[in-house]
Specification:
Arc Repressor Mutant, subunit A, about 0% strand, about 180 residues, Rna Polymerase Sigma Factor, Chain: A
């Protein structure tokens, strides 16, 4: 079945199962285009999911004047451009998180107890300066070691929302930690 036939059947019958065929056909290309813009795997995955949601909602606007793949590429490109342009702080934040990732923070070679206590206090101070919501989601993930699925169920939100909230909480914690002296 061609892309155009598939789109027509999805629109006519509101068939989400057929949409999964489109997803399989285009997910790799859409993810790669998103990654090209943001240079971050998690963010590219989130953008890809946003694009697929919007594609599903906008399928009826596809008129067949061009190939469907061209329409999807244009849709993806425009979404990514708008995303980057809406977030002027994003580049600064991306540089900060690339240089300072809480999960993979390289500890100094000084393993003395005094040094470790200072780091622990600094992290606790940084945690106290972020919002309760940010602190809670980080505790669910890293203290209670809950899976993303369990966090979804606990908070009653979707997987991409959980991932984005964790990412943002980590960024805020990193900023707070960097400011704590």
């Amino acid at each position: 079945m061609t892309d155009q036939e598939l789109v027509s059947r999805i629109v006519d019958h509101n068939d989400t199962a057929l949409f999964s065929v489109l997803y399989d056909r285009f997910s790799h290309n859409i993810y790669n285009k998103c990654y090209h813009f943001v240079k971050n795997e998690d963010e590219a995955k989130d953008l890809s999911q946003d694009i697929f949601l919007k594609l599903y909602l906008k399928l009826s606007s596809f008129q067949g004047k061009s190939k469907f793949s061209t329409w999807v590429y244009s849709f993806t490109y425009n979404h990514c451009v708008n995303y980057v342009n809406r977030n002027p702080k994003r580049k600064y934040e991306m540089r900060l998180t690339e240089n300072f990732d809480i999960e993979n923070y390289a500890e100094d070679r000084d393993d003395s107890m005094d040094h470790l206590e200072r780091k622990g206090k600094r992290i606790n101070n940084a945690l106290q300066k972020i919002s309760v919501n940010d602190r809670s989601i980080l505790e669910l993930k890293y203290k209670q070691n809950l899976s993303l699925k369990n966090i979804e169920n606990t908070l009653g939100i979707g997987e991409s929302a959980v991932k984005m909230r964790i990412k943002r909480a980590k960024e805020r914690l990193a900023n707070s930690y960097a400011m704590a002296v």
